[in-house]
Design a protein that fits this description.
Largest sheet: 5 strands, parallel
Distance between the termini: 31 Å
Strand order of the largest sheet: 1-7-6-2-3
Helix content: 25-40%
Structural class: alpha/beta
Number of strands: 15
Order of helices and strands: HEHEHEEEHEHEHHEHEEEHEHEHEE
Number of helices: 11
Radius of gyration: 19 Å
Length: 318
């Protein structure tokens, strides 16, 4: 097995924000509580139906004091085009969405998922990636989400949340963070690694997402299941920082290779992208938001499935 040196970087450091003016990519409830009154800080709660029933009503019942709310699933963070789910909307649309939440270019944003399961971390990671794609680096994810905030015993508020005036948000597209279909096709023939964030049954072709037209994975892909990167503590789900190096080594990933993360619709893949790019310090990581939903649309594109009973993958053409 290929072993790689992975340096876990950019983690929670209470002094980092004050010293460098920039929060780390991943913060905990203690960090957020200490900075909750900072004038430039915006807490963005993105709970949705993905999060075991989370929605606006759940936010109104209880949320972090001063937080603003946006439904990850319905407010326009992703869109469907030409039958492909989960794509990044046009920049102008996302600029309008973010500015409408009262977030400007000078704000530091802390994204708060529900923290009730592995999948909702992907919601936060996908919104985080969206900010980074628009050139906004002052963004963090609250590890453990709202469930982690409650588990830490901090105060919660009720009602509509923080009321912020509409702000001007201008994005500058960072194309190197987005993998296009053409780039994925090219990666298959060059020294790049494709990382499938889906659970093993999807990776092996035993389970197919309704968003994909065929089972299996991209030929030559490696598997880093998103859910193995998180663990549950006190009824909240956290990115399992202590074991990330182990998981990355198990997937036989090369930190020096150009890397493209994918899944079914670019949701679970956002967790892998976040871990590899923002925490483990891989230099060249992009997210293929079209993922299997786009790749599988054309039956001439090759797919790879595990032959039951054998520990290898076979190329098939659908």
């Amino acid at each position: 097995m290929l072993r790689v040196m992975v340096f876990i970087v950019g983690l929670v450091a209470t002094s980092a924000f004050a010293a460098a003016g920039k929060a780390p990519p991943l913060v905990d409830a203690g960090w957020l509580h200490a900075h909750l009154q900072d004038e430039t800080l915006v807490v963005l709660d993105i709970r949705s139906a993905i999060d075991n029933g989370g929605d606006r009503s759940g936010f109104n019942q209880a949320h972090i004091p001063g937080a603003v709310y946006s439904n990850y699933a319905t407010d326009g963070w992703r869109e469907t085009r030409e039958g492909v789910q989960g794509l990044l909307p046009p920049v102008r649309n996302v600029e309008r969405l973010i500015g409408g939440l009262g977030i400007g270019n000078s704000h530091t944003v802390v994204i708060v998922p529900a923290g009730t399961g592995p999948t909702d971390f992907g919601s936060a990671a996908r919104v985080y990636w969206t900010f980074r794609v628009l050139g906004h680096d002052q963004v963090s994810i609250l590890n453990g989400g709202f469930a982690g905030w409650q588990a830490a015993g901090y105060d919660v508020a009720s009602g509509d949340g923080g009321q912020r005036p509409v702000a001007s948000f201008q994005g500058e597209l960072q194309e190197h963070l987005i993998a296009t279909l053409a780039e994925v096709e090219q990666a298959r023939t060059e020294q790049a690694q494709l990382v499938d964030a889906r659970p093993e049954d999807y990776f092996g072709g035993e389970t197919r997402s309704p968003a994909a037209k065929a089972p299996g994975t991209l030929p030559g892909a490696l598997n880093l299941p998103h859910h193995t990167l998180l663990s549950e503590q006190n009824q909240a789900w956290y990115l399992d920082v202590a074991h990330l190096t182990e998981r990355i080594n198990e997937a036989e990933l090369n930190r020096d290779a150009e890397t493209i993360a994918f899944c079914n619709t670019g949701h679970w893949a956002a967790t892998d992208w976040f871990v590899l790019s923002e925490v483990a310090g891989f230099d060249r990581v992009a997210l293929y938001d079209g993922s299997m939903a786009e790749w599988s649309q054309d039956s001439s594109r090759p797919m790879q499935v595990a032959k039951r009973g054998l520990g290898k993958l076979l190329d098939i053409f659908n």
